[in-house]
Amino acid sequence: MSRRSVADMLQLATGVSRFFGAQRVLDGLDLTVEEGEVVALLGRSGSGKSTLLRLLAGLDKPDAGQVTVPDGVGVVFQEARLFPWLDVLDNVTIGLPRTARAAALDALAEVGLADKSRAWPLTLSGGEAQRVALARALVREPRLMLFDEPFGALDALTRIAMHQLVVRIWARHATTVVLVTHDVDEAVLLADRVLVLDGGRIAHQVTVTRAADGSVPATELLDRRAELFSHLGVEQLGALRRQARAEPETPLSQQERLAQT
Ligand SMILES: Nc1ncnc2c1ncn2[C@@H]1O[C@H](COP(=O)(O)OP(=O)(O)OP(=O)(O)O)[C@@H](O)[C@H]1O
Ligand SMILES: [Mg+2]
């Protein structure tokens, strides 16, 4: 919450329902975010996270209720979704007038790809392609950025580099962000508030308290993680092992991440 000074609220979804055949995926869901807030959305596979994001992005319509998003929404998906027949710069400026080229070059520089503007998408690494997708969203100066597991396909090191990059960019642009992720740690490290989607609604929310420098203290990470795991109905493996062996607490392991897909 420390990143914001003005507390303008955006009521993005009001009583939103979405059905697919007989399946009720979203059920009267309400979602409000504060301008400049970074909100992470967690939930089991199939809980409706992408469905909600598609509605917010205007790519789908609710069966009931209302979606109200500000003008200018940027979306970044798990795959970069670049057009292979366009070079990087043309991918970033697609649909924009030629006057946007200077801003596009700035956006590419911001994501560390100043030297790749004339490269072809097929020659890029996964992390580079994702950074192009980020630049494509940024150049439109969105008030709201939607991310659907944007780091899910990246290796661990690239993922950490992307975390650092997006945190810098979000802070610089004071963007409001809704980030879908499977990764509880990623949610706590990146978001001001973590929401759990369950039963078609936001069933729980957890607020993350940061240190003055914006980092998340280790104890805060552990506490919020434990809270979220319990909301997600997932026993942490460490706790289960301790229970089984009646051993004292051990350091955290990577295995405690959600592996739902
Ligand atoms: N276009 C569609 N037609 C029919 N069913 C759909 C459609 N889109 C989504 N669904 C169903 O809605 C449910 C929610 O899907 P959604 O993609 O929103 O889940 P998710 O929370 O994003 O899951 P994951 O974490 O695996 O990405 C799933 O059961 C899915 O099969
Ligand atoms: Mg999804």
TrEMBL record:
<keyword id="KW-0547">Nucleotide-binding</keyword>
<keyword id="KW-0472">Membrane</keyword>
<dbReference type="InterPro" id="IPR027417">
    <property type="entry name" value="P-loop_NTPase"/>
</dbReference>
<feature type="domain" description="ABC transporter">
    <location>
        <begin position="10"/>
        <end position="224"/>
    </location>
</feature>
<dbReference type="GO" id="GO:0016887">
    <property type="term" value="F:ATP hydrolysis activity"/>
</dbReference>
<dbReference type="InterPro" id="IPR003439">
    <property type="entry name" value="ABC_transporter-like_ATP-bd"/>
</dbReference>
<dbReference type="InterPro" id="IPR017871">
    <property type="entry name" value="ABC_transporter-like_CS"/>
</dbReference>
<keyword id="KW-1278">Translocase</keyword>
<dbReference type="InterPro" id="IPR003593">
    <property type="entry name" value="AAA+_ATPase"/>
</dbReference>
<dbReference type="InterPro" id="IPR050166">
    <property type="entry name" value="ABC_transporter_ATP-bind"/>
</dbReference>
<keyword id="KW-0813">Transport</keyword>
<keyword id="KW-1003">Cell membrane</keyword>
<dbReference type="GO" id="GO:0005524">
    <property type="term" value="F:ATP binding"/>
</dbReference>
<dbReference type="Pfam" id="PF00005">
    <property type="entry name" value="ABC_tran"/>
</dbReference>
<protein>
    <submittedName>
        <fullName>ABC transporter ATP-binding protein</fullName>
    </submittedName>
</protein>
<keyword id="KW-0067">ATP-binding</keyword>
